[in-house]
Structures are given as structure tokens and as C-alpha cells.
Amino acid sequence: MTPRTPPGPTPHAPCCGPGSRAASREPAALAPPPLPGPGPRAGSDDGLVRLEGGSFWMGSDDPEGFASDGEGPVRRVTLKPFAIEATAVTNAGFAAFVAHTGYVTEAQRFGWSYVFGPHLPEKFARGLRAVPGVPWWVAVPGARWDRPLGERSSLSGRDGHPVVHVSWHDAAAYAAWAGRALPTEAQWEFAARGGGERQTFPWGDRLEPRGRHRCNVFQGRFPERDTAADGFAGTCRVDAFTPNAYGLHNVCGNVWEWTADWFCPTWHADDRHETRVDPTGPRGNDIPVDPAGNRRRVQKGGSYLCHRSYCNRYRLGARTGNVPDSSTTNAGFRCVRHGG
Question: In 3D, which of 114, 121, 162, 311 has the Cα closest to residue 223?
Fold first, then answer.
């Protein structure tokens, strides 16, 4: 498949993700990949944390946040019991899915995916074109889940890292095979908060309490210099750092995580049309379409590229949206099982 020049960046999330590939599709790639049937371990409790549900304060009114993303207002939300994976899905887990189903990701079908350019070895970066307006994003031919930096890269030593270069459609396909689902935005945030109320992070309101790194985000001067002071340039293992009070790892930083909800910055601010019990976001004609004609899915948690000076969306109440066919080196997912 011939690599194609990507369209422009996502205006509200320039470091989170570069936006849609829709303008560069071939007709054969228009339809999303089909969902596979349940796999041999569908229904397993492996890796799941059961939560009894309950009520919590969702969202953020942080003055350093992004009101245009629809972080607020903070609202009281109630959830039924569910179970959620303690970690993001790993490369090893996704490899088992591919081996069993023969699944082909959207990055493979397109023939390229987005990579954070400053992390590319010089020999990999020669001749590649950056995304206009956000030159740290590069469309790399051959970049895919098992070749994260392009054709000449591999997953050597990274079995326990989160799978990346997976679109929303790819994540949904894995979840169906695993007998699970993608979490709603409310389920994700409830679990990520670990029982805390209105705090910025699972451990409190300071990013680095007592100078300790508690998550994998960007240190240095974004995007030119990544000091990796937390020990990682790029992704880390899915079980790195201390888990939250519910036993979930890396809900802040490392990789953005896809959720089931459609992205709308204004939906939950209007009590007339959103329930506060097991909310699922807008549906049907209520899903907004951006100027490029795209609808977006909610992503939560931030990534190793988030930095307070530019994009502090590693906060629990923060959110962003990206189109379901987009894939990058800083986005993955974890699954839930409804009903616990």
C-alpha cells in the first residue's frame, strides 16, 4: 500500500494526537474492520478488578484545564457494578488476539501510522514528512502495532508495554474477542479515581509529590528535549509505577486510552439530555461533526507526551477526542466487563 500524506492536525489536541486519516483513505479502507467472534478465553476473569459501582464526582473545573474539551462542569454520576482491567492491553495480549484471529489493524490497512518524530532514530526519520503545524508528528510508512517505529523496528523487549498504533475500531475488535467491551468515559474515570473525590491525580493534587515520579509523562522542554527523568522516553510497562487504590496501573500518562463514548464538549453540560446514571455520551444525531466531517471518540488519561507547559491532559478529569480510525504511538486501551 502506498503511503499517503496525512491531513492537518487536531486543533484542540495538537500533542495528544494528530487527527484523522480520513482524507487519505483508499476506497478499500473505508469500511472499518469486522468484529471477530469471542476467543477461547472470553469470559475469563484474568486481569480484571471488580468494582461495586456507586456515585462519584466526574469531570474537572481546573482553571489550568481545557474548558473547550468539555472537562466541566463537575457533576455527580452513579454507576452500576462493573469490572475493569488493571492495566492497558499489552503487546503480548494483542499478539495472542492477532495469532488467533488473523486480525489486520487499520494502521496495517492504511500502510502507515503516526509516530512522535523526536523519538525516531535518525536513520528511520530520513525523508519522512511531518504533519503541518505539529512537526513532532510524522506519518511513518510501515508503522503498526508490532513495528512501532516503522518497518525496521520490532517489539523486542516490549511484550509488557501497552500495544499502540491501535485505532478505536481495533480496540473494539480486541474487546469483542476477549468477551469484554471498551469502558464508558464514566466507568474509566470512576475506576481511575480509585475512590478519591475531586482530586487531580489518583494520589492527590501534586504531579510529583515530594519529588517522586508517579506516572510516565514528558519531562524537559516539549517537544525538543525529553529528559526521561521518570525513567522512560516513550512507553513504559503497563504495570510500572504504584497502582491506584483500586489496583489500576498507569491511568495517568503512558498511553491515551480509548473509551466507548462519542466526544462532545457540550453534551454533559446540559441536564436536559444526559442521564447521570451510567451515562454513555451522545448518540445518533446528537454526535457532533467537526469541520472536516469527522466524529470523534473520547480518550482518557493522557500519555508520555503530556507536559504541563503544553498539554496537561494527564489529569483524571481531562479528556480529548480522536477519530475512530486514527492510530499513534501514544494511544492504547483497556477493557471492561459490564455487570462485574
Answer: 311
Instruction: Tell me the sheet residues that pair with 139.
Output: 114
- Per-residue pLDDT tens digits for 120-133: 988 888 888 888 88
Residue 287: how many other CB atoms lie within 10 Å: 16
Question: Length of the chain, please?
Answer: 340
C-alpha cell at 162: 501497552
Q: Which residues contact 51 (CB under 8 A, 6 or more apart)?
A: 81, 82, 83, 84, 190, 191, 246, 340
Q: What is the spatial order of strands in the sheet that 130-131 belongs to?
A: 112-116, 134-141, 130-131
CB count within 10 Å of CB 155 equals 16
Q: Please give the CATH topology (third level) of the domain spanning 54-91+164-338.
A: paralog of FGE (formylglycine-generating enzyme) (3.90.1580)
Q: What is the pLDDT of residues 129-179, one digit of tens each?
A: 888 888 899 999 999 999 999 999 999 999 999 999 999 999 999 999 999
Rounded Cα distance, 131 and 6, in Å: 7
- For residues 190 and 79, the answer to whether their CB atoms sit within 8 Å is yes
Give the max Cα distance, the chain: 55
- For residues 89 and 43, give the distance between their C-alpha atoms in angstroms, rounded to a whole number: 16
